[in-house]
Please model this.
Amino acid sequence: MTSSSGTSRVTPLPLCADAHETPAAVIEQLSGVLIGKHHTVKLAFACLIARGHLLIEDVPGVGKTTLARALGVSLGLDWTRVQFTNDLLPADILGVSVFDRDSASFHFRPGPVFTSILLADEVNRAPPKAQSALLEAMEERQVSIDGETHALPDSFFVVATQNPTEQLGAFPLPESQLDRFLVGITIGLPDAATECELLEHGDRRATLDTLEPCTSPEQLKRWSEQAESVHVDSKLIHYIQALLAATRDDGRYGHGLSPRAGLALLRLCRTWAWLDGRDHLLPEDVQAVFPAVAGHRLTGSVASGQEAAADVLARVSCP
Amino acid sequence: MTAVGVALGKSTRKKRWVPQVLNLRPSTAAVEPRILSALAALLLLAQLPHVVHLPLWATLLGGGLIGLRVLACKRPDIRSLDWVLSSIALTGFCVIVALLIRWHYGYFVGRDPAVAFLFILVAAKFAELRRGSDATLLMCLASFLLLTQYFYSQTIVAAAVTLPAVLALGHALAVVRDPVRAAPAASNLTLVGAMLLQGAPIAILLFIVFPRLSGPLWSLPEDSMATSGLSDSMSPGSIADLSRSSEVAFRVEFDNEVPPKDLRYWRGPVFERFDGRSWSAAPIREVATLAVDANATGTINYTVMLQPHRQHWMFALDRATGLPMSSSGDAKALARIMTDGQLISDAPINRITRYLQQSIPGDRVHTGAAPGPLTRNTAGRNPRAEVLGQQLAATHDSPEAIAAALLQRFSQAPFRYTLQPSLLGISPVDEFLFDTREGFCEHYASAFAMVMRAAGIPSRVVTGYLGGEMNGDYMIVRQSDAHAWTELWIDGAWQRFDPTGAIAPSRIEDGIGAALGADEPLPSLSRLTGGWMGGMQLRWDRMNHAWQRMVVDFDDDAQARLWEKLGIKKPALWQLTAVVLAVSCAWVALLIGLPGFTWWKQYTHERRLPPAERAWQRLERLLAHHALGRHIGEAPADWLQRVARQQPVLADQLHALSQGFARQRFAGVDDEAALGALESSIGALRKTLRRTPRGKTTSVPAPA
Model:
């Protein structure tokens, strides 16, 4: 069952010896795959350092999957790709208990979710039932099947790609699931120069196979801890709270951002400041990451959420 | 509309220059429709109270002009409207309207024509409205037009009728002052209503304490005023006409005792001259001195609130023992008493007049000397009555017996008491006494006095009011209570005889409604002594009375009494101003309490802020002062970068400040030396800014 169509398991290569184990090196490598999208790449990387799940939304063919795969390879994590389809069942993701005739007992056969990076491709093509299979895994980093709880690896990330919801055959993700994605990004079409370069040098997907990990899961964990120690002034705590409150005030954005979203925002802010080599958070960091955190939560779609987030930023006075 | 037509024709003939003149002005479509409709509503509501007293054509013209202007706004494609509503056409129109008004009223300087002209002018100004700035002027004009309706009436109704216009005025103000925020009219009205209510306490305070002028601000020309109530002469039918009116003549508050019904004779004009048909006052009368009887008992003290009747006389219960005193307590007599017992004021009663009066009810009047020859003159036009008088004189010896004989004749012969007697010819007394034998009080009084004169007894006719209805703690005397009676000179005093009492005794006891048959055209009120209609009417009168006493009559005297009651010396103007300002400020602070409070909190908060924050706020204020302020939601570094782009001269300084402040404010460090450096950097920036001409500032929109 787990070997059903659309899933593939990749074992990470051993860490290359000459890798510069710095966050900047990772970002640089990723930027090499996804040309001209430095900010997007940095957000995606920051999301994983902040131990959050990543949602990439865009039209097909702009490099969603490429980015997700590049992330997995560059971070030296094992990753599994699941192609979500509208006949996907929860068991296809989580795994099943199979009766073993020899031992006359049930054996749990883990599904593709038991990995470090789960690349959920076109996640909104699956019906809500299949999507809900991911909920527990994303929040608790564990899977409960038949009354048994199976822990997931410590560094478990979901990198999901989603097609714009107005496309045919797409189910909108439920709010509860959207809220579990720390960051929602769009990639967008390349600009003219980048596109020319792309056409000239051919498909970057080929280079994916030659990518080598620049860091290790242990290093990633250390970075996470370092980012957590970034100093946040109380003015900025108030600012972040005011931003959250502004999304809830007038009911334009449903219920607004949840406290969980607030915590996620603060975590990502810290990571962002840390990536810039600072030990303290600045208002600019908050503003830089706020659209990525708030966008998909406010409107259900990353693209239309950017506008809402910008509107909230323009209304709340900044310290 | 003909006026417009003429003006239009003129304009088209001078096609060469008029369009140029017109084109210099913004077109009629230039005014925003929102402002225009708000003003139109305001004007219509301000015009509304005037509709009752303006001629119909003026109302239609005024409303029509407003309609045309609104049409011109709705349909800018009708080019001809621009011509009709041009200032030239409207000026011509106004000249013609002025002539029409002069023709309609017969004069121009006076209340009615002036108000009518103002009515048209305001509408014309609206029709000509082209610039938004005219809106303010128009609102002032509309307010003035609204105020002019108080020239006509100051009752509760008159005040209530102005309320919608006040609301519309507030709405128009809100729209004109804030045309961008296109709030729907309903929410705007809610806002305006709330603001008006919030302003009401201050208005009430000002109403109470604002210094009053002791007289009216200006006096209106009296030529335009119609008199009401009793007139200065009496002929058959004149009082009967008056009896059909339920208008209030005056109201009376008694200090303690209310006189019984048959003694409620309110003395008005006294007539001694008789021409055979009508009675009028003696041409020459003298001022009498009141013989004050110190031992007199039964004195009744009361306050009269006399409705304006545009004549000189004032009313008092027969017989007055004092002069009418102004109620302010400064012991100023408002009138003199004449030898015929009448109270005459110096100026006509043109506004509601309140005076204190005292009387001892009685039927003998002592004032004055012996009766003059006028009181014996029978005019010689009623021969049969004269014969009757002479017969009575021959058969009876005393004046009382003669009078009693005639009264008996009235009650025994088939005389009828009616409001609708047959018309009388050239010998009215003869015809009444011997032929028609039906009449109202003036017929009886007139005939009685004339026959007495023929019998050799000096007599005169007194008009006034008989009766009055208690309504709560005060008495209403209406025009329908108008009455006429006679006085005979007996034993050195004038003795009252009321011949109406002989024919219709119930008139004196129970009022006119009881004395007349059901088919008489009386005002329904005089009949409705009970029932809910009557009760409602009386309650309404009570409200009006309270309004009159508390609002309209609140003049400088009432104000002085208020200060006295409060135990304060009348405050000086500056003290009043200070108090009113202080109270208003306190009220406003209370209303906007929350924002005011947060402002204070912010101020004190700022004092307690860390030094880095205070320095930062200084920087924010400094740049804001030079129109380089931070947008809401703009991050500090983004802001300073934007300013640097706008003012490249400052770029280096700003960059250093940006870095420094980011460390100081967000890194959680406390570095006094660095802070000192920042403060001096701000000082340096201030100097640079002062040197930089502001004009160089180029506005660059904030990055999204």
Notes: Chain A has a mean pLDDT of 82. Residues 165 and 230 of chain A are 37 Å apart (CA to CA). The longest strand of chain A covers residues 95-100. Chain A has 13 helices and ten strands.
